[in-house]
Model the fold of this input.
Amino acid sequence: MNKTLDEMKMIHEEEMQSYGRIQDRVISVMLSHGCKIVQTPSFEDYDSYGTYFPSLRKEMIKTIDSDGSVLVLRPDVTLPLVKAAAIEFPDGSELLKYGYVTTVFRNYYGMTSHGRDFLQAGVEVLGDPTPECDGEVIVTAAEFLESVGIESMRIDLGTVAYMDALFEALELSERQADELRSCMEKRNLVSFREIAESLPLSGKRRTALLELPSLFGPYGPTMSRARSLCLNGQMDQALDRISRVYEYLASAGYEKLAHQDFGFASHMGYYSDLVFRIYVDDALYSLVSGGRYDKLSEQFGPARPACGFGMNMNLLYEYMTDSGLLDEEGPSFQLAVSYDRFSKNLAADLTRWRKKGYRVMGYRVMGYRLGNTVDPSDYAAMAVYRDGSYETGGEILSPDEMEKKLEAMKSCCT
Done:
């Protein structure tokens, strides 16, 4: 029991207010890009997730439905959103732009925090196959961070299509390719090299595979090196597309933030082309990750190309706290009134003030020493009610005078 309680943490009002302000800002960015705000179901069929996220099977939170089927609390938003869109909007030519803020039930780890679920904000654009769509999605993600005061960031661009085309050129088996992808995802470069060196490859084919994990860095030099390692037309096409995405970012003023990372692999099994992550201040973990997934929708209905991203708002909150970017918190309430015996007049005053929008609390004490206590920092003012008057800050105020004081304090509490 103690172990269970040690792992639980309430989210207090001040933190909720900060989350609320962050959420308002990112939703404003969503709306500015023409996204409709949606919410996806909390539960989804286990088999659907198991197909696309086999590495997450152990950590998925499972339950049994009334008909005996296995359900999971959503470990991802993209899959249920695309599934719902395929059913509700069967015309695959219709462009759909969605934004959301919702809870994702998946383990996460930050510098000072961790948990089994986190708040995620994201955008999904369904029906647009162009590199310009990819560019706008990345710009939207960067604007999420800018909207809360973050300016120092790095955008890492990768492409699953380049890696897949390389593995096809090398004629790797599905098992060999999956092992290499797993090593890339975990950044286990030792195991990657051991597997690569065990394969019967030579010359440029061997060089291209061994250099894949180290293909990261500034956009220009990294792109040139990736181009020199191309073994087929599909690899060249993947680079052509990502160069158009970079062109869009440059036009939007983000070219100096863009880097390349061709070793980017993800446990999200639906990515088909562009993948990206956004880091802040050289953090070891990304706040934003996303990419293009053109083949997911056709599993549920119409073929519909798509691109999107998700941002871990718990990690964002941790970063903003450590960096002093959160708005300074004031008291949550205007007034706390203590009293030693019940008074109809006091009850009437408190009720009237609450109906006018003031945040006031009354609590009983005994002898002004025994009984309930409150944290004074939660209130703009403390008062003692006695004989129809309010004693606060050395003043004795009538109910009308107390109400005028409340009006003056109203703007301090949000």
Residues 1-6 have pLDDT under 50 and may be disordered.
